[in-house]
Amino acid sequence: EVNLALFYSEYDDLQVSQFDGTLGFVVGNAAEATSQGVELDGRWLLAEGLTWSFAAAYLDFEFDDYQDGTCSSKVKQATGQTLCDYSGERNIFTPEWTASTSLDYVMGLTDTLDIHATLDVLYTDDQYVDVTLNPDVQQDAYTKLNARLALEADNWSLALVGKNLTDEDIVTFSTDTPLSGTLGAPSYTSYMDRPRTVAVQAVYRF
Asked: What's the CA gap between 100 and 140, in Å, rounded?
């Protein structure tokens, strides 16, 4: 099974919310923006009980006209500007490339008990994670590895689950720390994805 999708979208007066670096958020309009790209995904039954899945996407997002965006604290401090021209820039959370692949294997141990193993690899390209599109806190490209090994019956399962096994440092969102720019040096507050975790998961269905 293979699926392919092409998309193209144009936005007028796209609403954008940006932190002003002090105490509040400024909601403004990016006059024009374009989002276009291609997505591919599919599944292949390699052998009995063994399925390979894959997906990949290319995204081209650009602010065609966005002249009055809020500047980051760093820019405000260096230039005195409060409004910046983001025309030609990408938006927050718009990595150019994303991809994933997984292997899923199910084997019957008895008439009522299966062993189920899954391995996932996920790739995300570099992207802005700050609404002021600050390159200082841009998230670099990364690859995550997840795995799951489980015993499953009709109404229960017991699994060993590992996530972010490559222990990547991933910033999910970043912003200027309130009032930091008024103290002589801007600083940033960031929210991180979980580091490497290994857990035992038990499920019982009544």
From this structure: 17
